[in-house]
Amino acid sequence: MRTVGVEEELLLVDEGTGEPLTRAAAVLASADAAPRETSVESELHGQQIEFATRPCADLGELANEIRRLRADTDRHARGAGARIAAVATSPLPVSPQVNEGERYRWIMEKFGSTADEQLTCGCHVHVSVDSDEEGVAVLDRIRPWLPQLLALSANSPFWQGQETGYGSYRARVWNRWPSAGPYGVFGSAEEYHAQVAAMVATGVLHDEGMVYFDARLSHHWPTVEIRVADVCLDPRTPVLLAALSRALVDTAAREAADGVPPAPVPTSVLRLASWQAARSGLDSDLLHPLHHTPAPPRETLDALLDHVGEALEANGDLARARTELDRLLGEGNGARVQRERYAKGEGLGEVVRECVRRTAGD
């Protein structure tokens, strides 16, 4: 069974006001001094922090890892006078503060306001692959299904104190990077690496780490890294993303081994599907992953389950995936939770405080 790991980027906020706080350096110092290992890292801005789970084959173990790491990171944040919130953008107005470092300074000088505004939090799922060749065969075949993962995770309806009309406004902000978003079919590992090298050679990107495809080969681990999702409010949702991502990788690898070619979906159509997923979340029509016409979320997610059902069952994840999908469609994702709290007349500060509570799984 393939292993799977999750990276979550989290916002550091004031527990009373909900405003983002520049406390990343203090949180990192606290985590570094802790006797128990917590894989916490800084990001571009000082108001956010990231952790990564260990690779897990069992999703129950992964769920425990996510809850433990959220709790540990929140404990370190408390020591720095902050709390963590699993929201993909700050509902309240914020002036992002860039962390120190040569790479971050280069990015700021190169990209100006595009980099300055990137106080966004995503969820990245790593799924193990046997080789770069298998990984690229997977990348070529999972392309049409990635917008569904974005819709499931949508958790950023507010931006700078305003309702955006999007379930995932993070996705719209993130796609302002010139290397971000849907990608074309590569065909081979050799072609994938050639394209990445050509992108870096332009001088527009600092390094390979700035190749921000919706899914890519990890440049650190033998994994496919699926990067399309918002960070998820409920700690159960990244476990669902991990189950579906692993099943997508299993299914794609099997198709490649059986000689099934990638679906010839133009990248331009995938960009529209991604935009629709960011706009709708789970609250209105998405583009169906097979025929790319509007369809209700339930229909598109049923198509995803049909596509990966055999792999989910083989991994022992099918019942969990069905239960979590039903829960999300009924209760709503993070975007719906935030909007419902705001519609009750609560201020955005109270919305953030509710997100802090739910981040911990309360």
TrEMBL record:
Q: Cross-referenced Gene3D superfamilies, in alphabetical order?
A: 3.30.590.20
- Enumerate the UniProt keywords alphabetically: ATP-binding, Ligase, Nucleotide-binding
Entry superkingdom: Bacteria
Q: Look up keyword DNA damage and say if it applies.
A: no
Catalyses which reaction(s): L-cysteine + L-glutamate + ATP = gamma-L-glutamyl-L-cysteine + ADP + phosphate + H(+)
The UniProt record lists the keyword Transmembrane: no
Task: Tell me its EC number(s), please.
Answer: 6.3.2.2
- Gene Ontology MF annotations: glutamate-cysteine ligase activity
In the record, the note on similarity to other proteins reads: Belongs to the glutamate--cysteine ligase type 2 family. YbdK subfamily.
According to its UniProt entry, the function of this protein is described as: ATP-dependent carboxylate-amine ligase which exhibits weak glutamate--cysteine ligase activity.
Fetch the PANTHER family from UniProt: GLUTAMATE--CYSTEINE LIGASE 2-RELATED
- What this protein is called in its record is Putative glutamate--cysteine ligase 2
